Amino acid sequence: MVQGLLSHKPPIGSRQIEPRDILINTPFAGQETEIRVRLIRKGIVGTTDDNKIRVASPLNARGQEGNIQFISLCLNDPAKPLSTEFIADREMLNIMFSRAKHMQIVVGNFRPWTTAIMNKDKGWEGASAKTARRYEFVEIIGSLWP
C-alpha cells in the first residue's frame, strides 16, 4: 500500500505523496521492527532525515501527525490471537487514532476479535469487557460493522 501511494501519479496541479507524508503507527515492538526492515528492503523509507516514512509506537508518536497514517494492529504472537495487551488502553487508542491529518488506514487481523465480540465470549462484552480493560477497544471494533 505504501509503495502504491508513493508511486501514484497525482492529477495535474496536485502534489506527489512523499515519504514524509506517511506515519505508520503500531503498538507492537516486533511489528515496528518488521515494518522498518521491510521498508528498507524495498528502498522506500526516504532518502533524507526530513523526508522519511515515520514508523512509531503510540508513545513515540505523541506530538507527531501524518498526512496519511497507517495503524497496524497485526499481532506478532499467533499463540494469543485474542490478546489486546495495552492497545485496549484508552490513552493508547486516543494516541493511535488521532495522528492522521487527511487519511487513516487501519490494518490487522480483526477476525478473532470480531468473532469474540459477536459471540459475546467471556471478557468481550459488557461489564466483563470493562473489567478486562478492553471496553473502548471493543467499542471501536464493534463500530466497524452494522
Top keywords for this entry?
single chain, 146 residues, alpha/beta, Rossmann fold, 2 domains, 6 helices, 34% helix
| Proportion of beta-strand residues | 15-25%
Number of domains: 2
- Topology pattern, helix = H, strand = E: HEHEEHEHHH
Distance between the termini: 26 Å
Strand order of the largest sheet: 2-1-3-4
Shape estimate: elongated
What is the CATH fold-level name of the largest domain? Answer: Rossmann fold
Which bin fits the share of residues in helices? 25-40%
What about the largest sheet?
Answer: 4 strands, parallel
What is the C-level CATH assignment of the largest domain? Alpha Beta
Number of strands: 4
CATH superfamily of the largest domain: P-loop containing nucleotide triphosphate hydrolases
What class would the helix/strand composition place it in? Answer: alpha/beta
Global Rg? 17 Å
- What is the CATH architecture descriptor of the largest domain? 3-Layer(aba) Sandwich
Pfam family, one: AAA_12
Domain DNA2/NAM7 helicase-like C-terminal: 16-109
Protein name: DNA2/NAM7 helicase-like C-terminal domain-containing protein
Organism: Aureobasidium pullulans (Black yeast)
